[in-house]
Structures are given as C-alpha cells and as structure tokens.
C-alpha cells in the first residue's frame, strides 16, 4: 500500500504567487488545502474592502483548482504582536519593518501552529520567493531564484525548525514564469498586481493612517550647519535618506542638490537635513545590531566575514561581524553605506544562504 500523500496548507492571500504555489504543490502530489488569514479589522469599511476582494480571489482560485479553502481570523494576534510593536518603534523615532514582524508572529507562528494543530497539516506553504535546502539534517534558507523578487530579507527570523515545516514552491521560479502559469491555468489572479503597503493592512495613505494612532508632533527642520529651514509634521513620518515630502523647496547657495534627511534628534524633536544623497552625515561605516535571529539557531561568537543588506533590494555589502555579547553584534562595512536606519533589519548572507539577522540599534557614522 502506498503511503497517503502529505497534507500542505497554503497561505492563500488572493495574489498570484500563492495561487501558483497551490497548483505547483498539487502537481508534486501533495494533498493541498488553502487558508485565508484575516488579520486586520480595525477600520474596515467601504474604502478598505480589499480584504473581501482578496478573499473572493482566493476562493475563486481554490474552486478552480478543486481545493478546500479555510479561513481564520488572527486580528487579535496581529494587533498584540505586530501592530503595537510597530507603533512603539515609530514612537521611539525608529523605522520598523512590519513585514518581518508579521512573518515572524503570524505567518510562521500563528499560521504554522493553526495548520498543524487544527487542520492536521504536515507542512505549510507560502508564495514567498525563497528556497530551502536541507543539509546535514538542518533546513537552510536560501535566496529565491529570481534575484529581483528574492524575499529572504523578510524571513531571516525563521529558525531551521520552521523552515523544515514550510514549502516555498515559487522560490524555484522567476516571476514572469509564475504569471505565465497563472495565465495558462486561467486563474483570476494572473494579472493582479503585487501587493505593497503594510503587511495585511494593505495600501493606504501612510501619513493619515499613522496619524490616527500616534499624535503627530510638529517640530523644526534644521540643516547640518544649524540653520532652521522649515517645519516637519512629525518625526515618525520621516526616515533616513528620505528626499520626498520634506516640504522644503529651493536650495541653498544656488546649488541644485536636493535635501535629504540625515538624522533625527528624537529628544528635541528636530529633523536634520543636508544636501546630496551621499552627504558624509548620511554615510555609516558600520552598525550595531540586536534582537538577533540565526537560522541555524546556534549562538554567534567570534568574528565572521559575510555580506549584509541593511534594507530590502539593496546590493549585498561585504562586511565583518564581531560578536559583542549574546544578543548584540558590531558590523563593519568594507565601504561606507548611505542611510543605515535604526529600527530596520540587517540581514546576513553567505553566498545564496541567508544566515539570519537583527534589528539595527544604532549606526556607526562616518563623521562624528
């Protein structure tokens, strides 16, 4: 008697990547079911009915593929474990990455547990562009095959145990191939554009949205030379390296270089700007990272040569990591890097392998 097929629950978002993931797993002989997660209900009304449209798309895909779609509401977990932390970080003048938190707390924790315990799953699957490789009994996280779409940066908090229970079918494909499969199958999601915006909350005017939860505190905009040249509406609306939305037209001394945010003085509620995207004040020689997560779950000691990304879609930067203690490391770049932003994540790689990462606690500036 042949063994019954392994059961996989695919996180169906109503997008093309998860749709094609479900079909690929069917082709590979798994018993496939879908799960649609509702994680936000704070202000759902006419203007934010995207969740209903996404659910309808997910249902249409599942109907087409002949698979069952379950739904679950993780709104309480999302609020407690992702959104409140997100607001705390903004309050402290840092710039968090909600997608990383969301993957850690919702997709690979709440969803993983629900799929295993309530739905009897052997694996979960998502439409992330990453790959897994099992080496010496431990699962590794690899970059997605499509370098333009690789999402390993957002998944660095996962441990090898979570990766061992997860499948990433589209990670082995390029995005155009995924769209072509969806078109050939006649899936409603084939031409749907990729979602952007805050994980699960969707696209909305970020400034208005944040302003509903955190009172904005206007303050001064000053140059690196100490000249006051404008007013900001709240430090939380600005991030290092930002050029747009400063509301300061014109340039000093007739030079044409635009203004960039180079620092935030949280204590005095002052935004500091300079001209030129490679202004020395914007450059860092390294960083200190904390809240470390290593995929192999082994504590890091000593020194390591590897590469780092300090934001998504950045070219890898060669660097040296030095352990400071159990949960803090110093990272020294081979070349200075612009706009290293506290609150964002530094993610480390050895070739194709994502080693893990941590939250940027502080940057080590080029100029003191």
From TrEMBL:
Residues at the catalytic site: 102 (nucleophile), 199 (cysteine persulfide intermediate)
Gene3D superfamilies registered for this protein in UniProt: Adenine nucleotide alpha hydrolases-like domains (2.30.30.280), HUPs (3.40.50.620), Translation factors (2.40.30.10)
Residue span(s) of domain tRNA-specific 2-thiouridylase MnmA-like central: 207-275
Residues covered by region (Interaction with target base in tRNA): 97-99
Annotated SUPFAM superfamilies: Adenine nucleotide alpha hydrolases-like
Major subcellular location class: cytoplasm
UniProt cross-references to Pfam families, sorted A to Z: tRNA_Me_trans, tRNA_Me_trans_C, tRNA_Me_trans_M
Cell compartments where the protein resides: Cytoplasm
Domain tRNA-specific 2-thiouridylase MnmA-like C-terminal: 286-360
Cystine bridges: 102-199
GO cellular component: cytoplasm
EC number: 2.8.1.13
Catalytic activity: S-sulfanyl-L-cysteinyl-[protein] + uridine(34) in tRNA + AH2 + ATP = 2-thiouridine(34) in tRNA + L-cysteinyl-[protein] + A + AMP + diphosphate + H(+)
Region named Interaction with tRNA: 149-151, 311-312
Entry keyword set: ATP-binding, Cytoplasm, Disulfide bond, Methyltransferase, Nucleotide-binding, RNA-binding, Transferase, tRNA processing, tRNA-binding
One BP annotation, GO: tRNA wobble position uridine thiolation
PANTHER family on file: MITOCHONDRIAL TRNA-SPECIFIC 2-THIOURIDYLASE 1, TRNA 5-METHYLAMINOMETHYL-2-THIOURIDYLATE -METHYLTRANSFERASE
Protein family per UniProt: Belongs to the MnmA/TRMU family.
HAMAP family: tRNA_thiouridyl_MnmA
Quaternary data: Interacts with TusE.
Descriptive protein name: tRNA-specific 2-thiouridylase MnmA
Organismal lineage: Bacteria, Pseudomonadati, Pseudomonadota, Gammaproteobacteria, Enterobacterales
């Amino acid at each position: 008697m042949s063994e019954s097929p392994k059961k996989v629950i695919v996180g169906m978002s109503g997008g093309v990547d998860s749709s094609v993931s479900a079909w690929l797993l069917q082709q590979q002989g798994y018993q496939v079911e879908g799960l649609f997660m509702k994680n936000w209900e704070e202000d759902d009304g006419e203007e934010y009915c995207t969740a209903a449209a996404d659910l309808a798309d997910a249902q249409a895909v599942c109907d087409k593929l002949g698979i069952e779609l379950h739904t679950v509401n993780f709104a309480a977990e999302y609020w407690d474990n992702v959104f409140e932390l997100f607001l705390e970080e903004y309050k402290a003048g840092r710039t968090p990455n909600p997608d990383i938190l969301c993957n850690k707390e919702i997709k690979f924790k709440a969803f993983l547990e629900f799929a295993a315990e309530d739905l009897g799953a052997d694996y979960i699957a998502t439409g992330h562009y990453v790959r897994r490789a099992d080496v010496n009994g431990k699962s590794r996280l690899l970059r997605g095959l499509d370098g333009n779409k690789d999402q390993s940066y957002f998944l660095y908090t996962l441990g090898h145990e979570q990766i061992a229970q997860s499948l990433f079918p589209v990670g082995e494909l390029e995005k155009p191939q995924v769209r072509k499969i969806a078109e050939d199958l006649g899936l409603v999601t084939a031409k749907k554009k990729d979602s952007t915006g805050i994980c699960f909350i969707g696209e909305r005017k970020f400034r208005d949205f944040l302003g509903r939860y955190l009172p904005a505190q206007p303050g001064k905009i000053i140059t690196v030379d100490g000249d006051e040249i404008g007013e900001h509406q709240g430090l939380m609306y600005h991030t290092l390296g930002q050029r747009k939305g400063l509301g300061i037209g014109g340039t000093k001394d007739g030079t044409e270089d635009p203004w960039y945010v180079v620092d935030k003085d949280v204590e005095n509620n002052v935004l500091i700007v300079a001209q030129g995207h490679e202004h020395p004040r914007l450059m860092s020689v390294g960083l200190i990272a904390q809240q470390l997560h290593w995929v192999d779950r082994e504590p890091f000691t000593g020194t390591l040569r590897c590469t780092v990304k300090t934001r998504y879609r950045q070219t890898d930067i060669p660097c040296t990591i030095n352990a400071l203690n159990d949960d803090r490391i110093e990272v020294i770049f081979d070349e200075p890097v612009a706009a290293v932003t506290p609150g964002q994540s530094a993610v480390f790689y050895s070739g194709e392998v994502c080693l893990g990462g941590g939250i940027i606690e502080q940057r080590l500036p080029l100029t003191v």
